[in-house]
Amino acid sequence: MNEIKTVAVFCGSNSGVNPAYTQAASDLGALLAKQNINIVFGGANVGLMHSLASSALEQGGYVTGVMTAFLEAKELVYEGVSESIIVDTMPERKKIMFDRSDAFILLPGGTGSYEEFFEIWTLVQLHKQLKPLGILNIANFYDPMLAMLKNAVAEKFMAEEHFNMAAVSEQVDDILEKMRQVDLSYRPEWLDAELNTKD
What we know:
- By secondary structure, the chain is α/β, with parallel strands linked by helices.
- It has 8 helices and 7 strands, in the order βαβαβαβαβαβααβα.
- Strand 1, helix 1 and strand 2 (38-41) form a beta-alpha-beta unit.
């Protein structure tokens, strides 16, 4: 079973159309706080990010926001978090989020959320970071993405074992348990193959 002490949550800086997205972000923040699991997030005071952080803080949770100076200058930083980290670049932001967290959850969001989640998913596949992943498919938001990935498996661009490294749930209340049960042991043979070098 994978132990989870700190979770990075990737989610939208907008709230989206369906109120279920905001409710899920709030529920996740409260759930993590109640289980004494720290949260690392993008640091914004808007959208699902705000709902996640404010709910966790209300429950006494520890919340770390990581934001770039560019976005801070736009007055988007959530001032009331437990810890606020300002960095210069997006790669620095991701590195801190990756290093500080031992699990990752994707809520509904846009390209920034996808990019962050897919990068850590790639690192897990490559055994550079063996940390649990979870996708909250609220109101079937991620059905198209999951269908695309299943097609990649069918077309042999992705191993089924790699696809299964990300737990998927439509409910906030069981995502952590599913993540704890994920098998991260699959290691393709080519990762251990000796490199062919020319003289």
